[in-house]
Design goal:
By secondary structure, the protein is mostly helical. The chain is built from eight helices and no strands. It has helices at about 1-20, 30-35, 40-65, 85-105, 115-135, 140-150, 155-180, 185-190. One of its GO terms (molecular function) is channel activity.
Length: about 200
């Protein structure tokens, strides 16, 4: 579990630093939080969700094409009989992740000097500690992709309800801690246009 968590964390750190200046949130729960906080409009959030879920499905199907269904393609699954406990656990750890992102990021953009390291450390810590319990997903798309690729969506609701609840609560707490989103953050949340002047 440590190796898987480390690999996931390192990939995420690299991705945040690589794409953070154009508003790189890869997690639908984070996107939901930015939309609820009015950092981005709902149409843009929907576009993010489509890309996030499509990328997760394509990546998982590609992995299945290369490696077959080995290891259930790292699908996240709660222990038998503990689905609601797993949903609660996902809510708690997603709450922490989203709250940290909302309070550390430069508005909705994940390009602060320490955001990538903080997010990676958080993912690695909870992936290592919570992974044996339910996979410690914190990301509905990350769980959806492998479930589609292995053909079983029976427990995906755990990884939708938990992270969504955690994100909603995190937005409320962030509002108490930081106040409403600042003027201009909505434009930043939608990323930098490709035709930006150089």
């Amino acid at each position: 579990m440590l190796v898987l968590s480390l690999v996931s964390a390192l990939w995420l750190v690299a991705a945040v630093y690589f794409l953070g200046d154009i508003s790189a949130h890869f997690n639908p729960a984070t996107t939901l939080a930015f939309a609820l906080r009015k950092d981005m409009d709902w149409a843009m959030a929907a576009a993010y969700w489509i890309v996030q879920f499509a990328a997760a499905i394509c990546g998982s199907l590609l992995a299945r094409g290369f490696f077959g269904p080995a290891g259930n393609l790292a699908a996240t699954m709660p222990k038998p009989g503990l689905s609601w406990q797993a949903a609660g656990f996902e809510a708690i750890i997603t709450f922490g992740l989203v709250l940290m992102v909302l309070n550390m990021a430069n508005g909705p953009k994940l390009n602060g000097p320490f955001v990538g390291l903080a997010v990676g450390a958080y993912i690695m810590a909870w992936g290592t500690m919570g992974g044996p319990f339910d996979g410690a997903s914190m990301n509905p798309a990350r769980s959806f992709g492998p479930d589609v690729a292995i053909g079983s969506l029976s427990t995906w609701w755990v990884y939708l309800i938990g992270p969504v609840a955690g994100a909603v609560i995190a937005v409320g707490v962030a509002y108490v801690l930081r106040g409403p989103a600042k003027v201009g953050e909505a434009a930043a949340a939608e990323g930098t246009p490709l035709d930006r002047p150089t």
